[in-house]
């Protein structure tokens, strides 16, 4: 019992000392969750929100509590054409939060984008400011249908992006070998990029073998959307792992991992034996293995993230100082 109360104290201390909410674009959920006429309650940056899709397909995100008498619009609210009807007294709000009854204050609306199968909202701090940058829409042509995994963790988006820049932990924690930098960290406004490659040692039928090099192209748009493009050039394999990290309440974040791979690769380059199976069968098998491996690696990070403290004063360690300097801009409010 002593042990569990001690760890509870550590977690409480971690929450108190955790980083503030950063500005930028953050995912609230998948587009597929929100069909036409559907209403969902959501939580982000310690705030309760309601999201809904009108019958014509417009997605809106509003502060959840009805300005009339405070009912939660996401619990029992209904879409009526292009409006959201409050369950309590049936007042209606449009996608901008304007009430159909004159003189009633507007429900605060959030800037929304639907990009790469995700619904994102813009958080600008306590003062509502229009978005100052955008997240790109990636082409999905020639890419497999995305596979999504959701997690809820005691962590912060800054820690998640930092992990991809902190190359020195990759060998120690994940056991990656022969780490080489391809392109050093580059930052430009809200965007960060870094490229490196490494290989792993695999156990195969009792023999230790070197796997081929995997190249990682890391791009982060703000702290909420991290894209990790993983290629294995000798196999002609290209894949994308997107990590959307959204703070929900103090200390905690929702993390959404979206995987997709380029459909075209030569399965015979991996092993001539694979050439006898249909391409769709081999790709399904390989992509499943890739996702499983990525999640196993991610879970090694989860243990660290959920139990670590944020150290604000760091010593020069490769790209970390530059990363921390870049991340500062998301707290300027
Ligand atoms: S509380 Fe929403 S209409 Fe009254
Ligand atoms: Fe990691």
Structure overview:
The protein folds into two domains: about 25-125, Rieske Iron-sulfur Protein (3-layer Sandwich), CATH 2.102.10.10; about 145-330, Naphthalene 1,2-dioxygenase Alpha Subunit, Chain A, domain 1. The protein has helices at about 1-15, 155-165, 170-175, 265-270, 280-305, 320-325, and strands spanning about 25-30, 40-45, 45-55, 60-65, 80, 85, 90-95, 110, 110-115, 120-125, 145-155, 175-190, 190-200, 200-205, 205-210, 215-220, 225-230, 235-245, 255-260. With about 325 residues, it is an alpha+beta fold. Strands 11-19-18-17-16-13-12 form a seven-stranded antiparallel beta sheet, with helices on one face. The chain has a four-stranded antiparallel beta sheet with strand order 2-3-4-8, with no helix packed on it. Strands 1-10-9 form a three-stranded antiparallel beta sheet, with no helix packed on it. The protein contains six helices and 19 strands.
């Amino acid at each position: 019992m002593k042990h569990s109360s001690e760890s509870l104290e550590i977690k409480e201390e971690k929450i108190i000392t955790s980083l503030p909410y950063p500005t930028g674009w953050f995912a609230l959920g998948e587009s597929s969750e929100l069909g036409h006429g559907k209403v969902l309650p959501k939580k982000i940056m310690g705030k309760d929100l309601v999201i809904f899709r009108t019958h014509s397909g417009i997605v809106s995100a509003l502060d959840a509590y009805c300005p009339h008498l405070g009912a939660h619009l996401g619990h029992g609210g209904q879409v009526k054409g292009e409006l959201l009807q409050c369950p309590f007294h049936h007042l209606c709000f449009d996608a901008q939060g304007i009430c159909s009854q004159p003189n009633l204050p507007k429900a605060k609306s959030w800037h929304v984008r639907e990009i790469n199968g995700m619904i994102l909202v813009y958080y600008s701090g306590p003062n509502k400011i229009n978005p100052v940058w955008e997240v790109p829409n990636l082409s999905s042509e020639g890419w497999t249908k995305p596979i999504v995994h959701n997690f809820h963790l005691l962590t912060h988006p800054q820690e998640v992006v930092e992990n991809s820049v902190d190359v020195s932990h990759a060998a120690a924690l994940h056991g990656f070998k022969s780490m080489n930098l391809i392109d050093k960290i580059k930052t430009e406004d809200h965007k960060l990029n870094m490229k490196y490659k490494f290989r792993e040692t695999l156990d195969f039928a009792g023999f230790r073998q070197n796997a081929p090099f995997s190249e990682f192209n890391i791009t982060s748009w703000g702290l909420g959307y991290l894209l990790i493009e993983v290629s294995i050039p000798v196999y002609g394999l290209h894949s994308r792992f997107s990590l959307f990290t959204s703070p929900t309440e103090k200390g905690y974040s929702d993390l959404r991992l979206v995987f997709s791979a380029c459909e075209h690769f030569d399965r015979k380059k991996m092993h001539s034996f694979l050439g006898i199976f249909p391409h769709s069968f081999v790709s399904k098998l390989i992509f499943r293995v890739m996702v499983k491996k990525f999640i196993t690696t991610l879970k090694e990070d989860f243990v660290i993230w959920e139990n670590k403290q944020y150290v604000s004063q760091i010593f020069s360690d490769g790209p970390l100082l530059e990363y921390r300097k870049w991340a500062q801009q998301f707290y300027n409010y």
